[in-house]
Amino acid sequence: MKTNLNVFLASNTTEASIDFKIKGSWFDKSLTIYNGNTDTPIAQMNMKVTASYTFTVTVRPNVDYAFVVAIILILDAINREGVGME
């Protein structure tokens, strides 16, 4: 299953343009976060599952890394509850 999500910030009330998009596959343990509706990646996440979960996150300079981590944690919580993202 592939993950394709459009993210709209609270200030974007009209949702006329996408603020961020997320592509990848949670099951393949890899996601990329893009700036707006472009192909410019701002962050990449890879996950390794052993006895625990290990996330490797690469964030481009001048990007709010706390925002990127928050998105990843939300997706992790959704998927641990068994809610599929299609």
UniProtKB/TrEMBL annotation:
One Pfam family linked to the record: LOR
Gene3D superfamilies: LURP1-related (2.40.160.200)
Regions crossing the membrane: none
SUPFAM superfamilies in alphabetical order: Tubby C-terminal domain-like
Family listed: Belongs to the LOR family.
Protein name: Uncharacterized protein
UniProt organism field: Stephania yunnanensis
